């Protein structure tokens, strides 16, 4: 079996996602196994996972409870529909999720990914306004540099130009808040930056332009992840909440990255003390092992749909695999693992150490900013003139060759290790990055 994985004889059939396909296929970086904090590469090396896969393997790799739960579930009930039918494990998982979610987010809609969770949340927001008799509220407000997956709703409210420019006119009726990155004022901040809360007031400007009666919802990542870790300025999320409340606009937090312990608290809602009306999750909900997403909503939103004749479907939306038995089993075992090991609240113990280690890179070559919160951090590099992204990509390749998986976006290195990382492994990861920064052109 391993031989087959180790030696693929043709790489061309798989059109790889978000990948420089030609570069990869000339010198492939293959992972063939994983355990706890490490991957094993096809050439037999141990690779320290500095990114929890893709910000998702929060409990580390191949954890026994999760593996066993999936094996057992596959043998007992492999698949069952969730349209007009049910299977107990999806209900059990929904209950457990709601128990641990911030107060008031009492119902959960299952999807298969972050992107689908985003689409689901946007559709719930629009439909909610309509069932409340406010059908004129159709506008959606996102934010520059936001990442909300790759489907049409998500790229419309998202703000990463490379993900948008190829795909036509996108959704209509979308506007964007400015991003919160202010390097001149906040560079090398440890944790939450001081400056920039007033950027939330731009929502008032947008409301003045369009009128509140046309706006359904605002969607933001509490901490913008994929664009390169932008931590919200002190008071910014509170302001957004106040302005949304003032104008009857729903607030959606996309916690696909921040959910399930990334900030050292179960959710960003817990970290910042600001509650949205809809909370989007995916990734860590199943430790990334089986694809799944979960969208949390308040009872007020859920109950608004529970009207009309009882034989009618209340919300015309769902996926063949919503609440899939294998995903639900993986999710339940994931939550148990998180709980048994205290992983979702490891912040106070480990985040300060991670912060100091990360900021020790300040004077290394090419570094123009470092940002961090919880167990996520970014090191921004000065781009090579006329060749943006090249320096960071070369750092990524060199890190892999040395034995560390890091992630780069633009000219930013992002680190988000599994929450089981030890202090020694943090040192090791930072040492790899230091060596790479000294080695790249
Ligand atoms: C904030 C946020 N939303 C949505 C997504 C999309 O998730 P997926 O890739 O599972 O569709 C991501 C993925 O990184 C994300 O970071």
TrEMBL record:
Q: Name one Pfam family in it.
A: Aminotran_3
- Which residues are listed as membrane-spanning? none
User: InterPro entries, from UniProt?
Assistant: Aminotrans_3, Aminotrans_3_PPA_site, PyrdxlP-dep_Trfase, PyrdxlP-dep_Trfase_major, PyrdxlP-dep_Trfase_small
Any one GO MF term held by the record is:
transaminase activity
Do you know which Gene3D superfamilies this protein is assigned to?
Answer: Aspartate Aminotransferase, domain 1, Type I PLP-dependent aspartate aminotransferase-like (Major domain)
Query: What are the alphabetically sorted keywords of the record?
Result: Aminotransferase, Pyridoxal phosphate, Transferase
Q: Which PROSITE patterns does this UniProt record tie to the protein?
A: AA_TRANSFER_CLASS_3
Tree of life domain: Bacteria
Cofactors: pyridoxal 5'-phosphate
Q: Which PANTHER family match?
A: ADENOSYLMETHIONINE-8-AMINO-7-OXONONANOATE AMINOTRANSFERASE, BETA-ALANINE--PYRUVATE AMINOTRANSFERASE
Q: Which family does it belong to?
A: Belongs to the class-III pyridoxal-phosphate-dependent aminotransferase family.
Write the protein's name: Aspartate aminotransferase family protein
């Amino acid at each position: 079996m391993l031989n087959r994985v180790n030696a693929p004889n043709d790489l061309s059939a798989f059109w790889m996602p978000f990948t420089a396909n030609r570069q990869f296929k000339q010198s492939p970086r293959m992972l063939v196994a994983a355990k706890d904090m490490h991957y094993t590469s096809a050439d037999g090396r141990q690779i320290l996972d500095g990114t929890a896969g893709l910000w998702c393997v929060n409990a580390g790799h191949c954890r026994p409870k999760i593996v066993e739960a999936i094996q057992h579930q596959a043998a007992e009930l492999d698949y069952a529909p969730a349209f007009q039918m049910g299977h107990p494990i999806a209900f059990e998982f929904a209950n457990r999720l709601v128990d641990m979610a911030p107060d008031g987010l009492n119902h959960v809609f299952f999807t298969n990914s972050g992107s689908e969770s985003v689409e689901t949340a946007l559709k719930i927001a629009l439909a909610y306004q309509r069932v409340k008799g406010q059908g004129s509220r159709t506008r959606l407000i996102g934010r520059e540099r936001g990442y909300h997956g790759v489907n049409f709703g998500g790229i419309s409210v998202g703000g990463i130009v490379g993900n948008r420019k190829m795909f036509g006119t996108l959704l209509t009726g979308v506007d964007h808040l400015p991003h919160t990155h202010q390097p001149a004022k906040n560079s090398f901040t440890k944790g939450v930056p001081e400056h920039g809360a007033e950027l939330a007031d731009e929502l008032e400007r947008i409301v003045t332009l369009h009128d509140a009666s046309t706006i359904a919802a605002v969607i933001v990542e509490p901490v913008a992840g994929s664009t390169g870790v932008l931590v919200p300025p002190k008071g910014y999320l509170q302001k957004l909440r106040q302005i949304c409340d003032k104008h009857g606009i729903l607030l959606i937090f996309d916690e696909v990255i921040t959910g399930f312990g990334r900030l050292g608290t179960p959710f960003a809602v817990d970290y910042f003390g600001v509650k949205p009306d809809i909370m989007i999750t995916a990734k860590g909900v199943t430790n990334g092992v089986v694809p799944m997403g979960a969208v949390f909503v308040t009872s007020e939103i859920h109950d608004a749909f529970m009207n009309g004749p009882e034989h009618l479907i209340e919300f015309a939306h769902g996926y063949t695999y919503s609440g899939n038995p294998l995903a639900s089993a993986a999710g339940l075992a994931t939550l148990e693992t998180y709980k048994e090991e205290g992983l979702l609240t490891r912040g106070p113990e480990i985040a300060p150490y991670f912060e100091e280690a990360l900021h020790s890179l300040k004077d290394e070559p090419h570094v123009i900013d470092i940002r961090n919160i919880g167990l996520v951090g970014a090191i921004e590099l000065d781009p090579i003139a006329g060749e943006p992204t090249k320096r960071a990509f070369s750092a990524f390749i060199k890190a892999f060759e040395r034995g560390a998986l890091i992630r780069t976006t633009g000219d930013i290195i992002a680190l988000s290790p599994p929450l089981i990382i030890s202090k020694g492994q943090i040192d090791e990861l930072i040492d790899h990055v230091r060596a790479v920064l000294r080695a790249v052109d």
